[in-house]
Amino acid sequence: MHRVHNTKIIATLGPASSTKEQVRDLFDAGVATFRLNFSHGDAKGHRRLYDIIRAVEAEAGRPIGILADMQGPKIRVGSFATREGVPLVAGERFVLDTSPAPGDVARVSLPHPEIFAAVHPGVELLLNDGKIRLMVESKSHDKIHTVVVTGGQLSGQKGLSVPGVALPLKPLTQKDRADLDTALGFGVDWIALSFVQRGVDVREVRDMIAGRAGLMSKIEKPEAIKDLPAILAESDAIMVARGDLGVEMMLEMVPGEQKRLVRAARSAGKPVVVATEMLQSMMETPTPTRAEVSDVATAVYDGADAVMLSAETASGKYPVAAVRTMSRIIEQTEQDPLYHAFMAAEEGRTVAEPTSADAISAAASEAAKTLNAAAIVAYTDSGSSALRAARWRPSVPILGVTTRAATARRLTLAWGVDVVLRDTDPVDFNDMAKIAVEAAAERLGQPGKHVVIIAGVQIGKSGGTNVVRVERIPDIAKP
Question: Which of 152, 188, 354, 408 has the smallest number of Cβ neighbours within 10 A?
Answer without folding.
Answer: 354
